[in-house]
């Protein structure tokens, strides 16, 4: 492996740590044209970023992201901050000629995402690459599902059924965190997890969402402003002072797809007992696939062309060397976990620097943002059917 690829990671909470782990692990399992090296960690609070830098063994830390994106010795800016910082950091990094990897959803609004795509077009013409972290595309089972659809094994796609269910907000006294503030996160369950479903559904079906009819709901309108924020939800005393939750707790919508499919989507962080049930089922004229991330190494496949008496959903263990990514890992397919998606993502990103640009890029992620926007608009109009605004 030749040259190093020097990465600055901005943000060091859950996603920052997942990315750092992945940058480190990728070259151990994938043969890459350049060796990624997390050279710098950026955070807002000096003491906290120093502590994280020392724990995660990053040689340098900073609180000045603008100075970092302008540094000559940094090749990649990896944005793991809340959504309200994405546009500003990405645009400055692209202007400085960096490759930019940005967590999902791309931005908090369509206007910000459009600005990012505009900056990306100019920078990409000069050699920069952009990428948005819809990490579930790197799940072997979902990559296999896409392959099946592309090969025509499902026939004409009729139904797309997506649910993303978590439960870390079920406790009404879990404290207010940035994921519950519209100004910081853009939206709630819709953008945080529903965005993954929108991306996966469009990517795997090969069809884009043309219009939606939706409802959004907030179950717990205020939460304690202080408390223990360990994990995603955390705990607080019910007598603590409370502040407003300004995002949706649950999102549900139906959708029409460009190729004639219809979709039903649901996203919530209140589905008690569902820890990370990112589910997708697609029914076509020839077959169906079904997936649940809680069993991420499996893909259910029904082939309508099997003998009638032998028909039924079969469970494919997506861990064989013939399956996406699996040949890079353990010899006899022992299976993978959540962190490995990010390893795949970083490996694909580094490999793509010497090849075709990796998808989803910022332009693809803007398409997801437009769908999120239509969902919010429809909900604000009592579920009125709302075409996705593409301005074409
Ligand atoms: C929290 O809901 C979260 O961490 C999301 O922000 C991630 O995108 C998802 O992969 C896991 O859950």
Automatic annotation (TrEMBL):
<dbReference type="Pfam" id="PF22725">
    <property type="entry name" value="GFO_IDH_MocA_C3"/>
</dbReference>
<dbReference type="GO" id="GO:0016491">
    <property type="term" value="F:oxidoreductase activity"/>
</dbReference>
<dbReference type="GO" id="GO:0000166">
    <property type="term" value="F:nucleotide binding"/>
</dbReference>
<keyword id="KW-0560">Oxidoreductase</keyword>
<dbReference type="InterPro" id="IPR055170">
    <property type="entry name" value="GFO_IDH_MocA-like_dom"/>
</dbReference>
<dbReference type="InterPro" id="IPR000683">
    <property type="entry name" value="Gfo/Idh/MocA-like_OxRdtase_N"/>
</dbReference>
<protein>
    <submittedName>
        <fullName>Dehydrogenase</fullName>
    </submittedName>
</protein>
<dbReference type="InterPro" id="IPR036291">
    <property type="entry name" value="NAD(P)-bd_dom_sf"/>
</dbReference>
<feature type="domain" description="Gfo/Idh/MocA-like oxidoreductase N-terminal">
    <location>
        <begin position="5"/>
        <end position="124"/>
    </location>
</feature>
<dbReference type="Pfam" id="PF01408">
    <property type="entry name" value="GFO_IDH_MocA"/>
</dbReference>
<keyword id="KW-0520">NAD</keyword>
<dbReference type="InterPro" id="IPR050463">
    <property type="entry name" value="Gfo/Idh/MocA_oxidrdct_glycsds"/>
</dbReference>
<feature type="domain" description="GFO/IDH/MocA-like oxidoreductase">
    <location>
        <begin position="144"/>
        <end position="289"/>
    </location>
</feature>
């Amino acid at each position: 492996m030749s040259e190093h690829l020097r990465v600055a990671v901005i943000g060091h909470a859950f996603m920052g740590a997942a990315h750092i782990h992945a940058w480190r692990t990728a070259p151990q399992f994938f043969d890459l044209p350049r060796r990624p090296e997390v050279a710098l960690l950026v955070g807002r609070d000096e003491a906290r970023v120093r502590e994280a830098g020392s724990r995660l063994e990053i040689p340098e830390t900073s609180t000045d992201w603008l100075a970092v994106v302008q540094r000559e010795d940094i090749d990649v800016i990896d944005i793991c901050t809340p959504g309200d910082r994405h546009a500003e950091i990405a645009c400055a990094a692209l202007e400085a000629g960096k490759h930019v990897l940005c967590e999902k959803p791309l931005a908090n609004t369509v206007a910000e995402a459009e600005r990012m795509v505009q900056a990306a077009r100019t920078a990409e013409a000069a050699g920069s690459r952009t990428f948005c972290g819809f990490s579930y595309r790197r799940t072997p089972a979902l990559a296999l599902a896409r392959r099946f659809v592309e090969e025509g094994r499902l026939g004409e796609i009729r139904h797309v059924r997506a649910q993303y269910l978590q439960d870390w907000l079920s406790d009404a006294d879990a404290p207010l965190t940035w994921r519950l503030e519209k100004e910081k996160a853009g939206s709630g369950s819709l953008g945080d997890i529903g965005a993954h479903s929108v991306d996966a559904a469009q990517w795997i079906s090969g069809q884009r969402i043309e219009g939606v009819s939706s409802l959004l709901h907030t179950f717990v309108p205020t939460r304690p402003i202080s408390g223990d924020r360990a994990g995603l939800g955390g705990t607080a005393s019910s007598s603590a002072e409370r502040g407003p939750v300004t995002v949706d707790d649950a999102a549900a919508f139906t959708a029409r797809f460009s190729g004639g499919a219809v979709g039903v989507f649901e996203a919530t962080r209140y589905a008690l007992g569902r820890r990370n049930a990112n589910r997708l089922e697609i029914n076509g004229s020839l077959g169906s696939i079904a997936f649940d991330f809680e069993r991420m190494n499996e893909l259910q496949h029904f082939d309508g062309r099997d003998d009638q008496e032998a028909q039924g959903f079969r469970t494919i263990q997506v861990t064989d060397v013939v399956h996406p990514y699996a040949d890079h890992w353990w010899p006899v397919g022992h299976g993978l976990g959540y962190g490995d998606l990010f390893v795949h993502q970083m490996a694909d990103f580094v490999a793509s620097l010497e090849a075709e640009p990796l998808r989803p890029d910022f332009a693809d992620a803007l398409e997801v943002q437009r769908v999120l926007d239509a969902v919010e608009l429809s909900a604000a109009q009592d579920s009125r059917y709302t075409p996705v605004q593409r301005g074409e």
